Structure formats: structure tokens, C-alpha cells
Amino acid sequence: MRGMDNHSFYVTGTDTGIGKSVVSAALLHALRARGLRAVGMKPVASGCEHTPGGWRNDDARLLRAASAPRPDYADVNPYALPNPLAPELAAADAGVTLALAPILAAHARLAAQSDAVVVEGVGGWAAPLSDTLDQIDLVRALDLPVVLVVGLRLGCINHARLTARAIAADGARLVGWVGNGIDPTMDRCDDVFALLQARLPVPCWGRLPFSAMPDPQALAIHLQVGSRG
Questions:
Q1: Mean pLDDT of the chain
Q2: Catalytic annotation, pick one of 29, 42, 61, 207
Q3: DSSP string covering 149-199
Q4: Which of 7, 99, 105, 144 could form a disulfide with 116 if both were Cys (CB 3.0 to 4.6 A apart)?
Q5: Rounded to the nearest 10 degrees, how much is the dihedral formed by the CA atoms of 11, 15, 169, 23?
Q6: Residue 58, H or E segment
């Protein structure tokens, strides 16, 4: 895929709320540590606050802050939807129709100024972008490989394996996964992580420890982008 040639990829997750944005920002810092110009993108973000500059989403701002060069917010997040709902519902509430063209145009501008674009999806892999668009449609249009974020909590083995199968069934290319510590009380987390390593079909790019106040730059040392296992 073209995306692996310039270190770009699409980040999805086993669910919503499992730290895709933190992992994506940490991946940006890891790429930058290798001397690459790396920028983040959150094409569709629901749950925004109104600012003098327009609607802004915290996850998109996190990705922008981790980017170098620092891109325009409108390119990082072409669709900033006010209500914290599934994108299809949030877009309907805002009277917005989501389309691929503005996203592809923004991505092209980001790619023109960088060596890598880390594109963060919405929710889990099967969460739709709109009533006519699934995430696989965007992945195909951008021609990007996929990285899976696994939130380390009870049930994650099932969720991770099902997601990996769904990505393959949709015809996308899963190239790696990252374990993210989101439950500090999880029993036998090391054993669960080892089971994931044995059962997921692609290499693990790293495991981020739990942090109540995660710092993506500090967490980047735990990642090996593009690891072959």
C-alpha cells in the first residue's frame, strides 16, 4: 500500500474510549523522533466546544499539538461536530452531510507538508461515518494500512480478535497493534497481553502503561512504529 511508503496509517480501535487519540499522538512523537515530519488528522470528530476560531475537538487538538509542522486546524479536523454522539447522529443534529471529498482534500494538504500522516478514526472499526460511509470507505480512498489500538481491559481479547477479522474481511491491511493500559485494576494484565501477542495476526508496536494524565511525548518511548515483531 502507498501508505507504508511514507509511514502513514489509519488508527482504529477495539471500541470508543480506549485511547486512540493518545496512542495516535504518541505515534506522531515516535515518528518525529526518527526525524520525520509527522502530522495528525481526525477527519470526523463529534463532541466539540465553540471557540472564537470555530468548533474545536480535544482529540483533534491533541493530534495537532503532537504534529510538526503544525497544520491548520481545519485540515486536521475537516468535520467538527458539536454534539458528543455517533458521527451520523451528530452530523444530522448539525445539519451537515459528511462526504469524502473534503476529507481527501484536507489529507492531500497534510501529506504535501509531511512525511507521515496519522489518521485517527471514530470509535471502533465498524462505527459508521455516515448513513452512506463506513470507515473502510475512507481507508480505501486514502489507501492506508491500519493500526489497531487495543484497550487493555476485561473482554479485550474477544474485541481485538473480532476487530482484526473485520478489518481483514473488509479488505483493509492491518499492519500492527498497540496495547493501551486503560484499567489500572485489571487482573493479570500481563497474561492477557501475552495472549493478545500470540493470537493477533500482526506484530505489536508497543504497550502503553496506564496513566491518569497521559503525556503522548513521554509515552512514545514505548512504541516501535513499523515493528515486525
A1: 94
A2: 42
A3: EEEESTTHHHHHHHHHHHHHHTT--EEEEEEEE--TT-TTHHHHHHHHHHH
A4: 7
A5: 20
A6: helix 58-65
The topology under which CATH files domain 2-222 is: Rossmann fold (3.40.50)
Dihedrals phi, psi of 124, to nearest 5 degrees: -90, 175
Q: What is the distance between the alpha carbons of residues 142 and 136, in angstroms, rounded to a whole number? A: 10
Helix, strand, coil percentages for the chain (3-state, nearest 5): 40, 20, 40
Task: Please say if the pLDDT value at position 3 is more than 50.
Answer: no
42 is catalytic: yes
- State the DSSP code for 25: H
Q: Per DSSP, which regions of 87-145 are E strands?
A: 116-120
Task: Tell me which residue of 214, 33, 57, 53 sits closest to 120, measured CA to CA.
Answer: 57
Displacement of CA 179 from its chain's centroid (Å): 13
The CA–CA distances, whole Å, from 132 to 98, 128, 138, 169 equal 9, 8, 11, 19
Which residue matches cell numbers 478514526? 121
Upstream peptide bond of 87 is cis (omega within 30 degrees of 0):
no
By the 10 Å C-beta count (0-12 exposed, 13-18 middle, 19+ buried), 141 is classed as middle
pLDDT band at 210 (very low <50, low <70, confident <90, very high): very high
Under a CB-based contact definition with an 8 Å cutoff, are residues 126 and 119 in contact?
no
